[in-house]
Design goal:
The protein has 270 residues and is an all-alpha fold. Helices cover 73% and strands 1% of the residues. It has a two-stranded antiparallel ribbon with strand order 1-2. Helix 4 (72-107) runs parallel beside helix 9 (216-238). It is flat and about 65 Å long. Residues 239-250 have low confidence and may be disordered.
Amino acid sequence: MTVLDKVVGDAPTETPAPGRHTTAWLLTMGLAAALLVLVPVAAGIGAYPVPVGDVLASVQHRVGLGGTELDRVAESVLWNVRFPRIVLALLIGASLGCAGALMQGVFGNPLAEPGVIGISSGAAVGAVAAIALGLNFFGTWTVSVCAFVAGLATVLLVYAMSREGGRTEVVTLILTGIALNAFAGAVIGLFLFFADAAAIQQITFWQLGSLAQATWPRCSRSCRARWSGWWSRRCTAAGSTCWRSVSGRPGIWAWTWSGCGSHSSSSSRC
């Protein structure tokens, strides 16, 4: 019996209260309204300030709803620098939310997230190794690819180590994840010890994350990656029936797709 089978089989069937449903909708609408307000405000803040009214006028002009075109510098700052960063930030936030939802679906716990079983630490090991060793076999995507592969390998390793007698217990998964987190932290420290000053600085910036290299083509590629993560989340939420329709083995494929969905944002940290 896999984790998904256990969660689906043991989960009690209860109907959510009408008040809870209304609260969720109100919270969603409030957050959406706050997002619509904060986007033009964020676009106007920076070393080259642009009034919010001018930002809205530029957007209206671009979509053909009137408005006025700004001067060349302001238009370039908005549409070549700030709006790509804002869109990429929204995609990253959506990816992180999707990763959390995947883990919550697998564990059946609303507090679960990719760091619980060491996925985040495993991905960090791959990225730090690529930077410290100076790997460049995929060009600018090398760090992202290494982070993705290492994170996915961590998912499969945790699944294999915690499976016993054809069953995978949630407690065993968590304990295995804690152990792998500690091991990954030690490996990262080892790479930092042997890395030079330039590599250490690059590793630090990677761990903090940056949107400085955001462009519209990169946003488009990231959007396609987020679509695959969204699909994996839908499949996980559908339960073991969906996974059996894919391969006949809900356990390992659920974990594999969970890892893919959890790392759909890894390419955006570089």
